[in-house]
Amino acid sequence: MIFASYRIEQMNIKDQALSISGYLTFNWKDPRLDWSDPTNTTQDYGNVDFLFSTEEYVWRPSIIIENSIQDMGVISDKSTPMRITNRGMVVWSPSGIFVVSCESDTTYYPLDTQDCKLKVSSKAYTINVLIFICYLSLYLAFVLFLAAMSVVLTIFVLRAHYATGEIPKVFKILFRCTSHSKVDVEILEKTDVGEFEHEDNKLTWQIVAVGMDTVFFYVYVVLISVVTSVLTVAYIIHYQSI
Question: Per UniProt, what is the membrane topology (predicted)?
C-alpha cells in the first residue's frame, strides 16, 4: 500500500485533527482474473495485456482508515477504475480528503514538528485467523470422513449381527487369538462324536458383531485423539513462527 498526498488541507491544533488530500494505491493478486494461460480460458486472449473495471464488478479488500475522525466506513470509490493485468494483478488508487486524528505538541511553537499518521487496516481476517480456519477445515473434513465411514461400518455390523450363515474362517482365527476370557460356569454339550465342547465358547454372529463394534469404537477414539493432537501442535508451531 502506498499513500501519495496532494496537499495538507488543514492542521487543526485545537481539535487535534489533520485534513489531508491524496490517494491510496493498493495492489493484490486475484487468480480468478488471470487469463495469461490460454488453456484456462474459452478463447486465446494473449494479445490483451490489461483491462479496466470498477469495484462493482471486481472483488476488493475491505479497507478502512483506522484513525479517521470523520468516516469509519470502508473505503469506496466507484469512479476510480481498477487496472487488471493478464496475470491477475489488480491496482486500485482511490483518492479523497482524509481527516485523521493527530496529537499535536506545540511546546516549541513556532519551531515545533508534528508527526501525524494515516493508519490503514483491513476489516477482513488476519493471517492467524486464516491459519486457524485452514486447520479447522482440515479437522472438520476428517470428522466428516469418519462420520461417513461410521455409517458404512454400522451397516456392516448390523448385517453381521443378524447374519445366519456360516462364520468365515478368518473371524474364527481372529477371535480365537484375541479371546482370553475365563469361563466361570462350564456348560458342557455332547457332540455327535462323543466329545465335549464349551457352549459359552461357541462363536456366533452376535459375538462377532459385538467384537467388531468394540474394535471400531477404539479405532475411532485413537484416530480422533491422534489427529486432534497433531493438528493442535502444528497450529501452535505455525502460530508461534509468525
Answer: Multi-pass membrane protein
Compute the distance between CA of residue 82 and CA of residue 105 in angstroms, rounded to an integer: 40
Q: How many helices (H) and strands (E) does the chain have?
A: 3, 10
Distance CA 118, CA 105 (A): 18
Q: For residue range 1-32, list pLDDT tens digits in order.
A: 888 888 989 888 888 899 999 999 999 999 98
Number of neighbouring beta carbons within 10 Å of residue 75: 20
Banded pLDDT at 99 (limits 50, 70, 90): very high
- Spatial distance between the Cα atoms of 209 and 160, rounded to a whole number of angstroms: 6
Mean pLDDT of 127-147: 85
Residues β-bridged to residue 5: 22
CA 36 to chain CA mean position, Å: 28
Whether the CB-CB separation of 21 and 3 falls below 8 Å is answered with no
Paired residues of 17 in beta bridges: 12, 101
DSSP state for residue 6 in the 8-state scheme: E
pLDDT at 183 over 70: no
pTM assigned to the model? 0.51
Q: Which of 187, 210, 208, 190 is nearest to 199 (CA)?
A: 187
DSSP 8-state class, residue 160:
H
Strand partners, 6: none
For residue 15, the model assigns a pLDDT of 87
